[in-house]
Amino acid sequence: MPEPTKTTPQTIAALGQPLARGNTAEIFAWGSAQILKLYRPDFSADAVNKEASLARTVYAAGLRVPAVGDLIMIENRHGLIYERIVGPPLLDQLSARPWRVARIAQTMAQLHTAIHARPAPTIPPLHQRLERNIQNAKLLSNPVRQSVLGILQTLPDANQLCHNDFHPANILMADQGPVIIDWMDAARADPLADVARTLILVHFAGLPSSGPLRLAQVALRRLLSGLYLRRYFQLRPGQRNDLARWMIPVAAARLVEGVGEEAQLVRYVETRIKKAG
Where are the beta strands (DSSP E) in 113-252? Predict the structure, then answer.
């Protein structure tokens, strides 16, 4: 069990050096058994409360995820206490030992199907979020945007739990087994929408701009994706054609996230739309 929440420091400096930094928050130690996720100043209270609610719902579903503690404020920044999970991300294993890609892909598939086995009727649906993001994807021409929205309308809704940011960096390899973190974008949806999101993240996120390193990473990511998909469909049978259709709106919706891979995503969406006829 996590230790009781300690007295809240009055300043950020009193927290010491962060353990990690991300786009939305910094992570600090909070005693020996917890961490503090301290959000950036522009992160709203509503967004933090939403993440806390999602995290508690997911924890109650019985998945191996960090337990959630209190919400706090330090220097007008919102913070959320989590159980501290000690262990490297699965991405580190892939980077250090790429020859173990098959085992890593199997771990991903097993964890992802475990998530998708849980119903999530009280979590917000993904369809509306995708539609809103696609509408705001100004890098797409209007005809392409309308085609993407049309495809989205043909895709099924569902009540299964989806992580919506599932990739090797969000899987921590703790001594007691893999732990899935970062549930702030969780939604209820067709599991294949979540699989599509994982493939988009694996294919495009953080690639070098050019050179041999890019080629090597592209090859490794394709191998990881193929092995992950093969094992996923063994564990949870589905249609690859349905997955291919989900890839289009999921890729288009990512264009509003400001992640630096917009040109690749636009080309991908436009090519897929042409192939879809």
Answer: 160-162, 171-174, 177-180, 187-189
Please tell me the least confidently modeled range out of 38-47, 95-104, 198-207.
198-207
Domains annotated for the chain, with CATH where assigned, are 13-83 (3.30.200.20), 90-276 (3.90.1200.10)
**Which is more confident, 182 or 217?**
182
User: Is residue 184 within 8 Å of 207, Cβ to Cβ?
Assistant: no
The per-residue pLDDT for range 142-154, each reduced to its tens digit, is 999 999 999 999 9
Structure tokens at 56: 């508690």
Number of H helices, E strands in the chain: 9, 9
Q: What are the tokens at 257?
A: 């996230």
Please classify residue 129 by burial: count the beta carbons closer than 10 Å to its beta carbon, then call 0-12 exposed, 13-18 middle and 19+ buried: middle
Predicted confidence (pLDDT) at residue 210 exceeds the cutoff of 60:
no
E strands, 19-103, in order: 20-21, 25-30, 34-39, 68-74, 77-83
**Lookup result for tokens 């992160």:** 43
What pairing do the DSSP bridges indicate for beta strands 68-74 and 77-83? antiparallel
Per-residue pLDDT band for 214 (boundaries 50, 70, 90) equals low
User: Which residues contact residue 148 at a Cβ distance below 8 angstroms, ignoring those fewer than 6 apart?
Assistant: 134, 140, 248, 249, 252, 269, 273
Share of the chain above pLDDT 70, in %: 94
